[in-house]
Amino acid sequence: MKSVNLPRKATAVAALCATLALSPFVQAESDIMERSFCVFDPVGANGPLFAITKTFQPVALKEGIKLDLRAYTDEKVAAEDFKAGQCDAVLLTGTRAREFNKFTGTLEAMGAVPGEEEMRLLYNTLSQEKARPFLIDGDYEVAGVFPGGAVYLHTRDRAIDSVEKLQGKRIATLDFDTASVRMVRHVGASVVGSNSANFAGKFNNGSVDLAYAPAVAYSPLELYKGVNPNGGVFKYALAYMNFQVIIHRDRFPDDAGQMVRDQAIKRIDEAYEIIAEAEAGIPDDIWMHPPQEDVAEYDKMLRKVRLSLLEDGVYDERAISLMKAIRCRVDGARSECAS
């Protein structure tokens, strides 16, 4: 299977996992510690995320910990196994992580993070020690958050170039995510229940008309098969995807989470370089650029849906407020900043 750029991305994400194994507390142990790690990789055990994760196993063993890495192509199963205690740590997308931490699960809220500058400010804020209370929820702690890039709408037909033309179209939708389902219904499109393991296949074989994903998924999941010959990628950020490392707090020392976050923020530039390369890897003639006046309307639409989800308790109010403050810091001229 063709793959572009993602291995370097996997290196950055895997570094978060490695920190759990290579931190000072492990080196002080006289006995080998065994820790299991559920790794979501849409390609599976032969995928880039899992492959890179395997490279630090022998290094971790030298430091006193034996890592049991388990690849999952179905993110739901990875989350369920972690929840059942079968894994000490797990790597998930931000949307799936919402069941373990509502605050960090809100970071992928639609339209909440317009671009890289806002996301950098957000990550810098969350990496500070004083942010830890927001990252702990019961027995779980979000040990690290890493960017996955802007989420774009992929279409099999370039004629679908506006919100109005989405009406009646079939969209591969993460059916476990209330926010995604509501957004699709808001624009009058048809929800086709999907998950991280099958949405690409549905898009590529024509079972759906559209799907949404970040640029880093374009080559590894072969989304170009669905886009070609008549489709395109709509260059408007619906949301900003992230990966999250979540741990069972009682299975790691108290300072383990902060150590992971400290390492994550040091590698943030590498992550953004990978995202930029992935976006540059999509041919210019595939991108569809909406008019600026339409972008303003899309921003308003996403804000309306975002606030409705907040009112219904799907999103965390603290996270929504933080991201609004960051948006207004970057661009005080936004209409929402007057309120």
UniProtKB/TrEMBL annotation:
Sorted keywords for this record are: Signal
Q: Which Pfam families match?
A: AdeT1_2
Q: Which SUPFAM superfamilies match?
A: Periplasmic binding protein-like II
Signal peptide positions are 1-28
Instruction: Tell me what this protein is called.
Output: RND type efflux pump
Biological source species: Marinobacter salarius
Taxonomic classification: Bacteria, Pseudomonadati, Pseudomonadota, Gammaproteobacteria, Pseudomonadales
